[in-house]
């Protein structure tokens, strides 16, 4: 996820610098990227975020909203024969001072999903199949706040499936940005 955020944000900074006062959404193509996870299991009711945020340079002009869409292919070894179903979340501020989050492992933050901001609906991934995905279908303002703050945590709530060697390949991703 760190490479995704860094690549997306570098592209956004270039567009923001060139866009001036345009009120029309701007589309920016992003580089393909992959996210690898050693293992995942059902976290129903909890969102798991990386312990450290992805940090980047703040834009010179504040971003109002962002959505990102494209394709994702999930590859994994299922331990139960099930598909993986998950919802993605984002945070613009550290989970550290949130009483509903626990980071005692030093590896991840585990937060109660009730008060977190989902940036997608629920997606079900079948091993090896590609499907369309959109970040920011809800709470696009959270993505914008993260860009404007210069750091983001992107996490997931897994509602079904247990797997190892999970790789999510994101391709043909496009960020749609509104500045004003």
Could you give a quick summary of the protein structure above?
The protein is of the alpha+beta class and 180 residues long.
Task: Describe the model.
- The structure is a single chain.
- This protein is an alpha+beta fold.
- It is 16% helix and 49% strand.
- Strands 1, 2, 5, 10 and 12 form a 5-stranded antiparallel beta sheet that branches. A 4-stranded antiparallel beta sheet has the order 4-11-6-9.
- The longest helix has 18 residues, at 2-19.
- It is globular, with a radius of gyration of 16 Å.
- The two termini are 27 Å apart.
Please outline the helices and strands:
Elements: H1 2-19, E1 26-29, E2 33-40, E3 46-50, E4 54-55, E5 65-78, E6 84-91, E7 101-102, E8 108-112, E9 117-125, E10 130-135, H2 140-149, E11 151-160, E12 163-178
Antiparallel strand pairs: 1-12, 2-12, 3-8, 4-11, 5-10, 5-12, 6-9, 6-11, 7-8
Number of strands: 12
Estimate what percentage of residues fall within beta strands: over 45%
> What is the CA-atom radius of gyration, in angstroms?
16 Å
> Residue-averaged pLDDT, rounded?
86
Q: What would you call the shape?
A: globular
Could you name the ranges where pLDDT drops below 50 across 5 or more consecutive residues? 8-20
* Quaternary structure: single chain
Distance between the terminal alpha carbons, to the nearest Å?
27 Å
Structural class by SSE content: alpha+beta
Order of helices and strands: HEEEEEEEEEEHEE
The biggest sheet amounts to: 5 strands, antiparallel
- How many H/I helices? 2
What helical percentage do the residues reach? 10-25%
